Amino acid sequence: MRRLWVGLLGFILIVGLAASGCATANKIGAARETMDQARAAGAVYKAPYEFKAAEAYLKNAVKEAEEGDRKAAEPFAEQAQTYANKALEMSGGGAK
Q: Rounded to an integer, what distance in angstroms lies between the CA atom of residue 91 and that of residue 83?
């Protein structure tokens, strides 16, 4: 019976770690997508500070994720998303 519980707890731990890694990858992907939209809307010129900040935070998020530190990568990805959203908003959101 004890072996069953140990195996079950191990499985839950592995699934939990995999899910947390996916969340970080999803946040990085979402920030990247928003940055692409902001770039297309002219944020490089219309909101240069916000766009550069988003780029820097995204670069740090990717670096930490590649090093395997998803816990450190997540706040960087969130900040990248925040600045990318602001850059997209300031550049007119791509609307013509």
A: 12
In a domain, residue 86? The reply is: yes
- Helix and strand numbers (H, E) in the chain are 4, 0
DSSP assigned state of 32: H
Q: Is 61 left (phi over 0), alpha (psi -120 to 50) or beta?
A: alpha
The answer to the question of residue 14 being in a domain is no
Residue 1 lies in a domain: no
CA–CA gap between residue 27 and residue 6 (Å, rounded): 32
> Which range marks the domain in which residue 35 is found?
20-90
* pLDDT computed for residue 22 by the predictor: 77
% of the chain at pLDDT higher than 90: 62
User: Does residue 16 contact residue 55 with C-beta atoms inside 8 Å?
Assistant: no
Cα separation of 21 and 25, whole Å? 6
